[in-house]
């Protein structure tokens, strides 16, 4: 038992680094240009596996000005210029203060700059404007996870999953947080569910990511000791 515990402890740091990189890939995608479409704002997570950000971005009637401002922020974000993306998004919010998606994307730009507390505050505002915003709850969980505040992260992931039980990214993030709090069975169960969901959705990249995490967990939990 002592040896197994020691080996597991030695693995925690690299696993955490891997986890945070996967969180960034799976939970928050780059900004995308707003495209006019009809979606139900009461259930923004119904089809997020198809276009996670596209469905998240509608907070009301679209307009050319709104699209242009988001396009500018999108370009800056994709270039890795998160500071200027933040500035543009703040200008956007001044023009569209009730736009939940604008607040959500500002939170993303802040999170990318490691301004976790500011990001959480902005995500909360997005949720105030759009209570069923599972993406925002998942993002708050990621912000807490980046600070190793696992219990708080778990609480937020659960809220996201209450809105959409088939939210694969939130299931994956929840599993990683459970693993970090030594709840192996719950972690594996959530990962298996996420894996099945991604397979049903034909999302090969996500399937590979979850399978990789499962391998990492199983490898560290069952060390080969002669």
Textual characterization of the structure:
The protein has helices spanning 2-27, 52-56, 64-78, 82-95, 100-112, 116-129, 134-146, 150-163, 168-180, 184-200, 204-221. It has a single domain (2-28, 48-221), classed as Serine Threonine Protein Phosphatase 5, Tetratricopeptide repeat, CATH 1.25.40.10. By secondary structure, it is mainly alpha-helical. The chain has eleven helices and no strands. 42% of the residues are buried. Helix 9 (168-180) runs antiparallel to helix 10 (184-200). It is elongated and about 50 Å long.
Structural features:
mainly alpha; 72% helix; Serine Threonine Protein Phosphatase 5, Tetratricopeptide repeat; 226 residues; 11 helices; disordered N terminus
């Amino acid at each position: 038992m002592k040896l197994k515990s020691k080996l597991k402890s030695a693995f925690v740091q690299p696993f955490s680094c891997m986890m945070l990189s996967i969180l960034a890939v799976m939970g928050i995608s780059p900004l995308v240009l707003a495209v006019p479409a009809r979606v139900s704002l009461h259930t923004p997570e119904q089809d997020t596996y198809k276009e996670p950000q596209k469905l998240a971005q509608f907070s009301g009637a679209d307009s050319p000005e709104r699209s242009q401002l988001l396009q500018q922020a999108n370009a800056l974000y994709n270039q890795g210029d998160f500071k200027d993306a933040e500035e543009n998004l703040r200008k956007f919010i001044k023009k569209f203060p009730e736009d939940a998606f604008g607040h959500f994307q500002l939170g993303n730009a802040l999170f990318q700059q490691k301004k976790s507390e500011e990001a959480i505050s902005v995500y909360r505002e997005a949720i105030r404007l759009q209570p069923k915003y599972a993406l925002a709850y998942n993002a708050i969980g990621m912000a807490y996870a980046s600070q190793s505040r696992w219990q708080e992260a778990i609480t937020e992931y659960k809220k996201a999953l209450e809105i959409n039980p088939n939210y694969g990214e939130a299931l994956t993030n929840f599993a990683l947080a459970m693993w970090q709090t030594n709840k192996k069975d719950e972690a594996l169960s959530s990962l298996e569910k996420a894996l099945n969901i991604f397979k049903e959705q034909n999302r090969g990249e996500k399937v590979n990511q979850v399978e990789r995490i499962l391998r990492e967990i199983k490898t560290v939990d069952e060390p080969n000791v002669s």
